[in-house]
């Protein structure tokens, strides 16, 4: 019998205190550091702006790392399923608010995205007593699109390459915005279908 099994043959659940969850928590803690670095020099294209952009990219990239470790080492936990999307939302939310404060992103875009993200997060917490809702494939694609769009917006490329980069940034941000709204609606539709379906009895 392996060390992960009990005498009854059931597989033991992995502990919440594991490396993937620790990486996720670090990602959450890095959000305020990134936010201060972004705003402290009023968004100038100096060293702090570059450092803030790189920190965001590195922090958001760990989303794939902790997920890979959790799956490959059988360390997937309900806590991780809950914290992982929250970490992404905290990071992207900090970036969006920071960019809007710096007048580099319209506030309405930030508000639409944050309303969707906060709404889905609250809904997940409400459903905790019944089930843990992991990020869907569409949700993960949305997060990827947001990450790319925000990374392009954070990097001060227009000052180096010209204003045409702003058009590229706008296209990626529009894609991220559309995916954010569509996947938010999809979550609600799928939940209503699940609630309407007859419950199975043992």
From TrEMBL:
Its EC number is 2.7.8.5. Gene3D superfamilies: 1.20.120.1760. GO terms for molecular function: CDP-diacylglycerol-glycerol-3-phosphate 3-phosphatidyltransferase activity. It is an enzyme of class 2 (transferase). Its main location: membrane. The chain crosses the membrane at residues 20-40, 47-70, 90-115, 167-189. Pfam families: CDP-OH_P_transf (PF01066). It is found in: Membrane. Keywords: Lipid biosynthesis, Lipid metabolism, Membrane, Phospholipid biosynthesis, Phospholipid metabolism, Transferase, Transmembrane, Transmembrane helix. It is a multi-pass membrane protein. Belongs to the CDP-alcohol phosphatidyltransferase class-I family. This is CDP-diacylglycerol--glycerol-3-phosphate 3-phosphatidyltransferase. It comes from Herbiconiux gentiana. The lineage of its organism: Bacteria, Bacillati, Actinomycetota, Actinomycetes, Micrococcales.
């Amino acid at each position: 019998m392996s060390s992960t099994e009990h005498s009854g043959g059931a597989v033991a659940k992995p502990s919440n205190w594991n490396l993937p969850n620790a990486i996720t928590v670090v990602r959450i803690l890095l959000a305020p550091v990134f936010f201060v670095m972004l705003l402290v020099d009023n968004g100038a294209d100096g060293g702090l702006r570059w450092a803030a952009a790189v920190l965001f990219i590195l922090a958001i990239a760990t989303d794939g790392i902790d997920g890979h470790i959790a799956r490959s080492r059988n360390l997937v936990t309900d806590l991780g399923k809950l914290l992982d999307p929250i970490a992404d939302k905290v990071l992207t939310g900090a970036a969006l608010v920071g960019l809007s404060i710096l007048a580099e992103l319209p506030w309405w875009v930030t508000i639409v995205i944050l309303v969707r993200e906060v709404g889905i997060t609250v809904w997940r917490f409400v459903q905790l007593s019944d089930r843990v809702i992991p990020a869907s494939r569409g949700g993960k694609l949305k997060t990827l699109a947001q990450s790319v769009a925000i990374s392009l917006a954070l990097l001060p490329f227009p000052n180096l390459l010209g204003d045409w980069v702003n058009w590229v940034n706008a296209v990626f941000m529009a894609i991220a915005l559309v995916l954010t709204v569509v996947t938010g609606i999809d979550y609600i539709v799928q939940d209503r279908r699940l609630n309407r379906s007859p419950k199975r009895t043992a």
